[in-house]
Every structure is written in C-alpha cells, then in structure tokens.
Amino acid sequence: xxxxxxxxxxxxxxxxxxxxxxxxxxxxxxxxxxxxxxxxxxxxxxxxxxxxxxxxxxxxxxxxxxxxxxxxxxxxxxxxxxxxxxxxxxxxxxxxxxxxxxxxxxxxxxxxx
Amino acid sequence: xxxxxxxxxxxxxxxxxxxxxxxxxxxxxxxxxxxxxxxxxxxxxxxxxxxxxxxxxxxxxxxxxxxxxxxxxxxxxxxxxxxxxxxxxxxxxxxxxxxxxxxxxxxxxxx
Lengths: 113, 111
Prior knowledge:
The complex is a heterodimer.
Chain A: E1 4-7, E2 10-13, E3 19-25, E4 31-38, E5 42-51, E6 54-57, E7 64-66, E8 76-78, E9 87-94, E10 103-104, E11 108-112
Parallel strand pairs in A: 2-11
Antiparallel strand pairs in A: 1-3, 3-8, 4-5, 4-9, 5-6, 7-8, 9-10, 9-11
Chain B: E1 4-7, E2 10-14, E3 19-25, E4 33-38, E5 45-50, E6 56-59, E7 62-67, E8 72-77, E9 86-92, E10 100-101, E11 105-110
Parallel strand pairs in B: 2-11
Antiparallel strand pairs in B: 1-3, 3-8, 4-5, 4-9, 6-7, 7-8, 9-10, 9-11
C-alpha cells in the first residue's frame, strides 16, 4: 500500500495562474479531505468528500474547487492563485466509522508570487 | 471561534523528562479526541486517541488523560527522547467525524 500520495511536492506559481494539486489513496477510504497548514494556524479544512460524487466545503473553501469522480482520487484546483494561498497543503483519507484514523499525505508546499 | 484550545505553543524538555501538552474544548458533543504527531516535512500521523468513557489511555511512553467535567485532555510523554521532537496537535470530533484541530505545540527535547 502506498497510502495517501500527493503531487507535486513543491510548486511555485505566479499570481493569477491556476493549477491542480493531485491526491490519491489506495486504501478504499470513503472520506477524503484537503487541509492547508500555515504557521500558527494549525490545520484548516478546505474541502472534504464523503464518497465518490459527494463533496462539501470546509472552513476555508474560497478560491478552491474539488471534485471526486472516483474513490481513489480527490484533486484540489486553485482557480486563480493569490499570494494568500501560499501554504502547505495536505490531503487526508479515512474509512467511515467511529473515530477511524485519518491518514495524511506528505504534503505539497505551494508558493504564490 | 476556536473550539479546541491547545497549550503551550512551544515546549522545551530535557531528555528523560516529562512533556505535558494540554487541550481544552467547548463542545460537550465531542466524543473522540486524538493526538497527532508531525515531524518536519511530513504529514501528521495519529499518535494516540481516547473516547470520553475512559479517563486515561496509555500506549508505551504516551498517555492521554481526560477530564470530562473540566472539558480538558492532555498528552503526557514520559522519558522524553530527542526523537520525540515534533509538533503535536490535539483534535476533537463528534457525530459528523470532522476533526476540529488545536493550533499545535512544537516540542523540542534537548539531549
């Protein structure tokens, strides 16, 4: 099992550019989430999905889109990058059920100039 | 409004000492309280978790103490080692299973 994989590891964008952060998991988990991590801010939920075809907004969804066409993949799209989106992005997955462990990917470090 | 408050923000402990990190929550509907450990350049990983029907859970050198009436829970790391140097996050969730995170504690264990 590869677990949760994310690509790319690092990315530099210019303001206004768009891009997609990729996330995949091979554990057949129903739940997948995207977080951003900023110094002193902890982990903030961007979007999440409870299964293929079902997505919902988290705490900080503005400027981001998601889709979930398969159980395995949950890409995060930045529509028009802004310097405020400079952050480390983590994808996570877990199975349904009470208190199941959430597995995190290695993260993508994004810089928007 | 932060629903899970974590303290301290940073902590320095000597090798062999006890590291203690505290969290307080507001929502009495929370029923799952995990602690995650994050090393630099890595994603967080589950360390230990507790449900409110027990007051303490121990796994090796790591113990969660839970005080339901005070709405507080804490992580104790016994015999702290330099390899424990990491950022620790507490979290809480209820029926929707969305985790509400504390802001993290950066732990440094001096050799």
